[in-house]
Automatic annotation (TrEMBL):
Domain (Beta-lactamase-related) ranges: 16-368
Species of provenance: Actinomycetospora rhizophila
Source domain of life: Bacteria
Enzyme class: hydrolase
Pfam families, sorted: Beta-lactamase (PF00144)
PANTHER family per UniProt: BETA-LACTAMASE FAMILY PROTEIN (AFU_ORTHOLOGUE AFUA_5G07500), BETA-LACTAMASE-RELATED
Keywords associated with the record: Hydrolase
EC number: 3.-.-.-
Protein name: Serine hydrolase domain-containing protein
């Protein structure tokens, strides 16, 4: 299977986005293909090496980084984060999600938040989906903690971000429920404090540079960056340009939820490392732990998880889904990026657009094309 084959399988769906990049890594061999243009109605062809905003595809990279620090002894999965983030010690937990944001009814947390709680997004705070109003989440939005699209310059610095978050109670007891996605904002702070340097520096040193992911970082290369768009009822409108992009200067808060920019090829380098049992960067046992569902059946069935996890579960920074072609793991970015790996087939594939929300027709055709081909082998 080659990138051109997958691109051809997208069929008419490619008309739903200005341009699309597909990358495939099969048995150690990588190839890429692109179709379309960089902007609606434009004439500049989208190149396979374009730099794009990876949004939530940032999460798997930071999860792998955290596991590197666990191997170094700088973190432990079961340790409370209080040692590194004392601001979040002695948490209180809401009695009712719909309770008032100011002076709500709370109870003490049954235990501290652990590093594993952050990796599995069971910290006790995140998006509330189909559960009615939650004034505490509304308060978090008002505090500028970041509940909308990625915005590198819309957040305060890490210490101030943690201080604001510390003023809120948790929504759930630590470990009890899966909620997208604030756990990874906290994880980024924990990792940086454990490493004794900024998240960008330690991520580059431990993950990006060893894997040759030279185009990936919290600051984008303007020579290769392409614009991003927001789709609404009127069609596509600009979300982030190039000359005025918010990804052209270092952010105050390097956001582990979705702050990275990079390329399809770089994502495949990361995916290949996992397929190669860590490639010497991670222990094979850490790769297995990262790519194994950690959720209980009740947690997978809860409204928030059901809305995000496509019938699957969650490992450390990746979604894990059973399919007819064998298990797959990976994750998507809200600005139109998608990565999946099928380890039984030694195959990883990425899809890149820059349209938010992700274009369902393109995502579905991408996954269907690959899994139909794998099921026939």
């Amino acid at each position: 299977m080659h990138a051109e084959d997958v691109l051809a399988g997208l069929g008419a769906a490619v008309a739903d986005v200005p341009g699309v990049i597909v990358g495939v890594r099969r048995r150690g061999v990588t190839d890429l293909a692109a179709s379309g243009v960089t902007e609606p109605g434009g004439d500049v062809a989208l190149r396979p090496d374009a730099v794009v905003r990876l949004s939530s595809n940032t999460k798997p990279l930071v999860a792998a980084l955290a596991l590197c620090l666990v191997a170094d002894g700088l973190l432990a999965l079961d340790e409370p984060i209080d040692r590194l983030v004392p601001e979040l010690a002695d948490r209180r937990v809401l009695v009712r999600l719909d309770g008032p944001a100011i002076d709500p009814d709370t109870v003490p947390a049954a235990r501290p938040i652990t590093v594993e709680d952050l990796l599995t997004m069971r910290m006790g705070f995140g998006h509330v989906v189909d559960e009615g109003p939650c004034p505490t989440v509304e308060r978090a939005v008002a505090l500028g903690l970041g509940f909308g699209p990625p915005d590198p310059h819309g957040l305060p610095g890490p210490d101030e971000w943690i201080a604001r978050f510390a003023g809120l109670p948790l929504l759930d007891q630590p470990g009890a429920a899966w909620r997208y996605e604030l756990s990874f904002a906290v994880l980024g702070v924990v990792v940086a404090r454990a490493a004794g340097c900024g998240l960008a520096e330690v991520l580059t040193a431990r993950i990006l540079a060893p894997l040759g992911m030279d185009a990936t970082g919290f600051v984008a290369d303007p020579a290769r960056l392409v614009p991003a768009y927001l789709r609404d009822d009127a069609g596509l409108r600009p979300f982030d340009g190039v000359a005025d992009s918010r990804w052209l200067s270092p952010p105050a808060f390097p956001d582990a939820r979705g702050g990275l920019a990079g390329t399809a090829e770089d994502l495949l380098r990361f995916a290949g490392m996992l397929l190669d049992d860590g490639g010497g960067l991670l222990d094979p046992a850490a790769v297995a732990a990262m790519t194994t569902d950690r959720l209980t059946p009740a947690q997978r069935a809860a409204p928030g998880a059901a809305a995000f996890l496509d019938g699957g579960g969650w490992g450390f920074g990746v979604g894990v889904v059973p399919t007819a072609a064998g298990p797959r793991y990976g994750w998507a970015g809200g600005l139109g990026t998608l990565w999946y790996s099928w380890p039984e087939h030694d195959l990883a594939a990425v899809l890149v657009t820059q349209v938010m929300p992700p274009t369902a027709s393109v995502f579905a055709a991408f996954t269907r094309t690959i899994e139909d081909a794998l099921a026939g082998q």
